[in-house]
Specification:
The complex is a heterodimer of chains A (287) and B (233).
Chain A: E1 3-14, E2 17-28, E3 32-36, H1 43-50, E4 58-63, E5 66-67, H2 72-77, E6 79-82, H3 94-103, H4 110-118, H5 134-146, E7 152-156, H6 164-179, E8 183-188, H7 191-197, E9 200-205, E10 208-213, H8 215-223, E11 226-233, E12 236-243, H9 249-259, E13 261-268, H10 271-279
Chain B: H1 2-17, H2 20-40, H3 43-73, H4 75-80, H5 86-112, H6 120-143, H7 147-169, H8 178-181, H9 185-197, H10 204-231
Helix pairs in contact in B: 1-5, 2-3, 2-5, 3-5, 3-6, 3-7, 3-9, 5-6, 6-7, 6-9, 6-10, 7-9, 9-10
Classes of the chains: A alpha/beta (287), B mainly alpha (233).
């Protein structure tokens, strides 16, 4: 299967500061790929280079088989982009916004209704974008990005700032797109979202790709599941973590529970734990 | 692609027409010219100056405001990832603003012509001035580092160009400011209007000056777009 996205040694410098350093990865057609990382890690800079908004300083990248620099026009015909900010005209209705975007992609007029129906947006088509909630605006953004049948969809922090219900609805919409085989590259700071939606994830830290695999494989390889306990011993609060795979762990946990006042006991080993260990525990957010 | 741009233009026109500020910018120059003209009885003398004011108020201020808003609300970024080259989209939207500026000028002329003939030369300089003011507004809107600095710069540019034209008007009264201000586009346009109103030909130097300003603005705009791609601004 042809690659949706191919990135080889991509770099971007702003003056002396390197924002992205030699990043390489590929996203297969139909795959959902998540780019994770804390503030300033280089996620958005990478996406801006892949969507033709920013010239790379070095390296190569192709999207849907088109070089992002040398074949920029062809590449732009093959992609849809959902920005973190609601990039829609607030005084125009949803239908008018979609019609404008469709006109620039030379699509058939019926496509507006089709895309709106796919995203459950039909009831909102006649409303000015400025009067919509953030959740609806985000759906309208995704609808716009899907016009013209893009081969690759880029989503920059798609659920940032949404309330839990709106985020869940949007996750459902993205799952439906995934089921349709749409190739997606999304940046997110939500580890649950990444683990839930992405086939594979790449973790960026200080401009470098420090991990790349499926969420489950990353957890298994880099963290392993464990049981974490906190207990009182000789007047001091102690803390410890025991690997779940270790045959001696159940006996050790039993001994602690029997002999001490245990405050907490929890199992660990999530994508978030991997993320924290790889990025030094810094808060993840858009960058 | 041209059909697509034409369809998109229809939506941009709706977006602009739904903006109440547009209507103020369209009507204000004609209304001010009418009030001042009736109060002073100098409509014919002041008509070229009000035409320059209409160019700056509608062309420069509307264009800069529109593109600063595009950048602030993120639609500019969305346009840059559309398959149509951004230069074409910019030209299409600029043409729309130019037409609106021309409408504002026609309104000024209709209400304040005081017997002046409407000749092809007058229309041509209305158009040239509208294109210049719009391009300057686009450049400010596209290249300013922030909305605040862009608005400040547009207001400053409008004040400088309009006051220069006011001073330029005084040139005929004996104050010779031409060596200092004569090269400014608003003064060149005013002078061209003056000639067109009296059915004379503007000087070749003035026409050349206006053409150079237009070329310089187009080149600056191209550089600004390239820089945006290279620097990510």
């Amino acid at each position: 299967m042809a690659a949706g996205v191919e990135v080889q040694g991509l770099e971007r410098r702003f003056g002396d500061k390197a924002a992205v350093r030699g990043v390489s990865f590929s996203v297969a057609a139909g795959e959902v790929f998540g780019l994770l990382g804390p503030n300033g890690a280089g996620k958005t800079t990478t996406v801006r280079m892949l969507t033709g908004l920013l010239l790379p300083s070095a390296g190569r990248a192709s999207v849907a088989g088109h070089d992002v620099v040398r074949e920029r026009a062809a590449m732009l015909r093959a992609i849809g982009v959902v920005f973190e900010l609601p990039a829609l005209y607030p005084r125009l209705t949803v239908r008018e916004n979609l019609a404008l975007a469709l006109a620039l992609r030379a699509g058939a007029r019926a496509e507006v209704d089709d895309v709106a129906a796919r995203l459950g947006l039909t009831s909102q088509l006649g409303r000015p974008v400025g009067t919509l909630s953030k959740g609806w605006r985000q759906r309208a953004m995704i609808a716009r990005a899907l016009l013209g049948h893009p081969q690759v969809l880029f989503l920059d922090e798609p659920t940032s700032g949404l309330d839990p219900n709106a985020a869940r609805d949007l996750h459902d919409a993205l799952r439906a797109l995934r089921a349709e085989g749409v190739t997606m590259l999304l940046t997110t700071h939500d580890m649950v979202e990444a683990a839930d939606l992405c086939d594979r994830v790449g973790i960026l830290s200080e401009g470098r790709l420090v991990a790349l695999d499926t969420p489950a494989a990353l957890v298994e390889r880099l963290q392993g599941r464990s049981v974490r306990l906190r207990w009182w011993e000789e007047g001091e609060l102690r803390e410890g973590s025991l690997p779940l795979r270790d045959p001696g762990t159940p006996a050790q946990v039993g001994a602690l529970l029997a002999g001490h006042r245990v405050l907490d006991i929890e199992t660990t080993g999530s994508l978030e734990d991997v993320y924290r260990s790889l990025t030094g525990g810094r808060e993840g957010s858009a960058c | 692609m041209l059909n697509g741009i034409a369809a998109a233009l229809g939506q941009w026109a709706k977006e602009l027409l739904k903006n109440p500020t547009l209507w103020v910018m369209l009507v204000l120059p004609a209304a001010m010219a009418w009030v001042v003209g009736h109060a002073t009885g100098a409509s014919a003398v002041l008509a070229p100056l009000w035409l320059v004011f209409a160019q700056l108020m509608t062309g420069l201020m509307l264009a800069s405001g529109h593109w600063l808003e595009e950048r602030q609300q993120g639609t500019w970024q969305a346009l840059r990832v559309s398959p149509v080259p951004i230069g074409w989209l910019l030209a299409a939207q600029a043409a729309l603003v130019t037409v609106l500026t021309l409408l504002s000028e026609l309104l000024v002329f209709a209400l304040n012509r005081a017997g002046a003939p409407f000749t092809p030369a007058v229309l041509a300089f209305m158009l040239v001035g509208a294109v210049f003011a719009t391009l300057l507004g686009v450049l400010i809107g596209v290249a300013s580092p922030s909305a605040r600095s862009g608005n400040l710069l547009a207001t400053l540019a409008m004040l400088v160009l309009f006051l220069a034209a006011v001073a330029g008007q005084g040139v005929a009264g004996g104050t010779d400011l031409r060596p200092i201000l004569g090269w400014l586009p608003s003064v060149l346009t005013l002078s061209a209007f003056g000639a067109a109103f009296s059915a004379a030909l503007p000087s070749l130097a003035e026409l050349l000056g206006l053409a150079l300003w237009l070329v310089a603005l187009v080149v600056a705009l191209r550089l600004a777009l390239r820089r945006q791609y290279a620097d990510g601004r």
